[in-house]
Design brief:
The chain has 156 residues and is mostly helical. It has four helices and no strands.
């Protein structure tokens, strides 16, 4: 039960980040193109899309489902699946004129631009977090006299 609750908490956090990011990106793009408000049906569509993306994110990056593929392979497959998912939502809900090739090119440019920004953001975040944990580990090892203690050994 504890693992299930941890998973739900993790999914909730990732889903909230995804949904917030999606609405912020949409609002920015919409305001730059002359939009004034977001339709409530689009909010529900974004919520469903972000729920699907969150599940895929859990499968590819939680470390609980896929463990063997390299990070870059997982990222490439994840990007392809997200692109298909977003294009499917765009097609199903007519987010733009579907027969307009320029609209599809804009959609792809925006998709890859946002995907790149989010990937770089996560990369920077995890590098900073990694440095922080390395510093904390270094301090902890210094306090213990430079000896690393595993969980199995316990503290002495």
């Amino acid at each position: 039960m504890k693992k299930f609750l941890e998973m739900v908490g993790e999914l909730k956090t990732w889903g909230c980040l995804s949904f917030t990011g999606a609405l912020c990106c949409y609002s920015l793009i919409d305001s730059l193109t002359g939009g004034e408000y977001i339709r409530h049906t689009l909010v529900w569509q974004m919520l469903a899309l972000c729920g699907c993306i969150t599940l895929l994110q859990y499968v590819f990056f939680s470390g609980r489902v896929l463990k063997k593929p390299s990070y870059y392979l997982r990222m490439a497959i994840f990007c392809g699946l997200i692109l298909i998912l977003c294009a499917g939502f765009a097609w199903a809900f007519h987010w733009f004129p579907l027969r307009n090739g320029g609209a599809w090119i804009s959609f792809l440019a925006i998709f890859f631009g946002i995907f790149l920004v989010f990937c770089l953001g996560f990369e920077i975040y995890f590098r900073i977090l990694g440095r922080k944990y390395d510093q904390l580990l270094g301090r902890s090892q210094q306090r213990r006299g430079g000896v690393s203690v595993s969980k199995d050994q316990g503290e002495k």
